[in-house]
Amino acid sequence: MINRRKFIKAGAMGASMVSTGGFLTAYAGSNHSGQVAAGRPVVISTWDFGVAANRAAWTILEAGGRALDAVEAGVRVPEADLANVTVGKGGYPDRDGHVTLDACIMDEHGNCGSVAALEHVTHPISVARLVMEKTPHVMLVGAGALQFALENGFERENLLTPEGEAAWKTWLKERKYEPVINIENRSFNVEKIPGNRYNHDTIGMLALGRNGDLSGACTTSGMAFKMHGRVGDSPIIGAGLYVDNEVGGATATGVGEEVIRTVGSFLVVELMRQGLSPRNACREAVKRIIKKKPEAAKKIQVGFLALNKNGEYGAFSLQKGFSFAVCDRYQQDLLLDGESMY
Ligand code: SD4
């Protein structure tokens, strides 16, 4: 259960303290960094459903487990949740009625694995991990990814739920190809676009283990009612996710095309390498998107989430409403609202 939401505001933070469930957590830095130093271990992830996902990851981190195991276990929670229509089983299908999933994972050694446009498997993140661990490759797509999964013991399943099918059929009535993603700002009237009510939310998760190693995972069903074969940023290393164990990790959510164009997560990590705080690095990446497409950027959502080697984290998005969840030894179900440009 989500029982509280804290708001992070730029500049106002200073050295303020916020009470979280009886514990005090200091917001680090007075230089407008606007972020929390959680120390380690810590796990953070995108959107409200990150709270439940973090809990699963935390069980592993708390016991001294590997960050890689934690992020895989964490994102498997929304992947298996049928009520979640944007990740894993139950995800909304593409415009031809196929549920196609994208996911990637990256460990502390720079190893990574990815699957794109994978059908019939509830846990693409675990297939991505196997690609990383059992093949000399980074990415498998479509039929090849499914073949690999089935050969490795994954069960073939039907991922289209009755709700997903009903939403698709509603969308088919108008067949309007107008993918809108992650706009929580109600002024956009997203709910008036058939089927677009839940057309957002990828889980990107970053964890720092007790031993100081970082890993990340990202998984999604992508844009609802997308063209068959469309792949977003989420399975693309450097775009939807990037981890460098010397520096930190970053993950993205929102309109994947814009994240790919800016190689967003890699950019955030490189900015942190240059000394920016996680929050400021995310902000710079958001600014890069605006610079490339100033008008388009006003109407879409992209959010970045980052964690550095010290356990400091931050987020920034184009539009309001980008929530992220944090779990560390003081707070297991913290939900925060990142700052936004608009
Ligand atoms: C995509 N980035 O497929 C994903 C969708 C997403 O929050 O993140 N939604 O473009």
From TrEMBL:
Entry-linked CDD domains: Glycosylasparaginase
Residues that hold substrate according to the record: 230-233, 253-256
Feature type site, description Cleavage: 201-202
SUPFAM superfamilies for the chain: N-terminal nucleophile aminohydrolases (Ntn hydrolases)
List of catalytic residues: 202
Origin: domain of life: Bacteria
One GO MF term attached to the UniProt entry: hydrolase activity, acting on carbon-nitrogen (but not peptide) bonds, in linear amides
Pfam families xref list: Asparaginase_2
InterPro entries named among the record's database cross-references: Ntn_hydrolases_N, Peptidase_T2, TAT_signal
GO cellular component, as recorded: cytoplasm
Protein name as it appears in the record: Asparaginase
